[in-house]
Design brief:
The chain is an alpha/beta fold. It is 37% helix and 20% strand. The strands form 3 sheets. Strands 1, 2, 5, 6, 7, 8, 9, 18, 19 and 20 form a 10-stranded mixed β-sheet that branches. Strands 10, 11, 12, 13, 14, 15, 16 and 17 form an 8-stranded mixed β-sheet that branches. The protein binds zinc ion.
Length: 499
């Protein structure tokens, strides 16, 4: 194998540093190669972050803005990887390099490459999730029923709660690791690229226990970093010392303080209008999902999901719950009276409604758009932390600077990271809440732009500490394989680390 890429979804450079003495494999990569903080993209979400990593391009160049998002035509869009966006595995594949793409979020449906592709989440039930097709059966029987995701992502909603949730994450991780080892053995690809999801899962629900020494879960995060480090060690050993190894996260994580109902804020400031009492489509499925999670033993849920017809099974997943929230925005907002709305996310994605602006101010449309964005910034600047009364620290990302490329029109006009000291504010897009804040946010931690990277191997210089951007790594990997990166990459190869 020439190159091994291991993605540790959501891993934080600060937690790695905190526990580095217990992470011998990551430490060895850092000490024998180059490493640093890896600045993720806006928005720091697994999709499009993994696609931006793999192409070296910003979301507006590849036309992917999230797992699910609302297009300018007010229809739901789904971010997915296609050969057209130019991922490094496609570029390598076309040059006859044997590639293996395994468990990368947003790679369903899989497509032909010179090697194999096994889709990462989200994947609907009863669908083909591998190329070649028959690899599914082979993996399934080799690991005792291959699993792509934990079908339930809220431990407190499930039977047995957090205690029962952790073994599900462990089982998913064990199967991912076993499958990765088998795929390397079966195919011996020149470039093998994969992700592990467990750190992201435990971050979201167990971060809050990290400093609580009385909690039985106080070491969950630390132990998962140790667990992940061991997996990196296993795979590196299998790949051999002549292989270049890159480990990275697509973004980092930070604890959450409170949740802001952003559309409520826009509504109370006259920027958004709701048609009437909010109607929630698909409530039956939300209730059914809650009932399934609370009633069935957690070990049986994956099996039940697999057996359920897709038209029901899919609606019971977390991704479908997000789809319903966004569909509710489309259905309930009065679009003739709404100048701006938000779809929430790890950074508030706020859109100005262009058609209304164009209708109201046909001659000065572009100035009006800018003045709406300015008003949004002013409003957000005024927000104070409901717990401390202190002013929040927003970081604004404007469309023109952040998103460049043929799909810029579809991009949000403004993204905002909201911090209160070292904690983040979760931005919830739910409509009709009547209240502005919730003190019990959905997650215990959410994503930040600070991820990590480390690379070692025969082509990599030793001892460099260097902060880099997520978009720099695909050009760097391509160069290390002797391939000139495409000229339309937004990132630049880290020449200083290459021998
Ligand atoms: Zn991620």
């Amino acid at each position: 194998m020439k190159t091994l890429v291991i993605g540790i979804d959501s891993a934080s450079p600060f937690l790695i540093q905190k526990w580095i003495d217990r992470l011998p494999n990551i430490r060895s990569i850092f000490e024998t190669g180059a490493h640093g903080v890896l600045k993720s993209i806006v928005p720091p979400e697994s999709v499009p972050a993994w696609q931006c990593f793999a192409t070296g391009k910003n979301p507006a160049k590849i036309g992917i803005f999230g797992f699910t998002y609302i297009g300018r035509d007010r229809h739901l869009k789904f971010g997915k990887t296609t050969p057209e966006i130019g991922c490094l595995w496609d570029i390598c594949s076309q040059r006859g390099i044997r590639v293996g793409v395994f468990n990368v979020p947003g790679t369903y449906p899989p497509y032909p490459v010179n090697g194999f592709m096994v889709s990462g989440f989200p994947v609907p039930t009863h669908k083909i999730w591998s190329y070649p097709n028959d690899l599914m059966r082979r993996l399934d029987s080799a690991v005792g029923g291959y699993e792509i995701d934990v079908p339930l992502t809220k431990p407190k909603n499930m039977k047995g709660g957090e205690k029962a949730y952790l073994p599900q994450v462990q089982r998913l991780h064990d199967k991912t690791l076993r499958a990765a080892e088998l795929l390397m053995e079966w195919y011996n690809p020149d470039l093998f690229l994969m992700t592990f999801q467990a750190i992201d899962l435990v971050h979201h629900d167990f971060w809050k226990y990290m400093d609580d020494q009385d909690s039985p879960y106080s070491n969950v995060l630390r132990d998962w970093y140790i667990n992940m480090d061991a997996a990196i060690g296993d795979l590196r050993k299998l790949a051999g010392r002549e292989t270049n190894v890159l480990v990275l996260s697509d973004h980092g994580s930070a604890p959450v303080s409170s949740a802001l109902f952003i559309n409520q804020y826009l509504e109370s400031n006259g920027l958004l209008t709701i048609k009437g009492p909010v109607k929630h489509k698909g409530e039956t499925y939300t209730k059914l999902r809650k009932w399934v999670l609370k009633t069935l033993p957690p070990g049986a849920i994956a099996t039940v999901y697999k057996m359920t017809p897709d038209f029901i099974g899919h609606r019971l997943t977390e991704s479908a719950a997000i789809e319903r929230t966004l569909q509710n925005l489309i259905d309930n907002i009065d679009w003739d009276k709404t100048l701006a709305f938000s779809t929430g996310g790890h950074q508030a994605h706020i859109y100005v409604t262009y058609d209304l602006v164009d209708k109201l101010h046909p001659i000065e449309a572009s100035q009006t758009r800018s003045s709406v964005v300015e008003k949004l910034c002013n409003l957000i600047d005024q927000l104070t932390d409901p717990k401390t009364g202190k002013k929040l620290s927003p970081i604004f990302h404007f469309k023109e600077d952040t998103f460049t490329g043929p799909f810029q029109y579809d991009a949000p006009d403004l993204c905002v990271e909201l911090y209160t000291e070292n904690e983040k504010i979760q931005v919830n897009p739910k409509l009709g809440t009547k209240q502005l804040w919730s003190s019990s946010p959905h997650f215990s931690s959410i994503h930040t732009r600070e991820g990590f990277w480390g690379m070692t191997g025969p082509s990599i210089r030793q001892g460099l500490e260097l902060d880099a951007g997520l978009l720099d790594l695909a050009p760097t990997l391509l160069k290390s394989l002797g391939i000139t990166p495409p000229i339309d990459c937004d990132g630049h190869a880290l020449d200083q680390i290459l021998i």
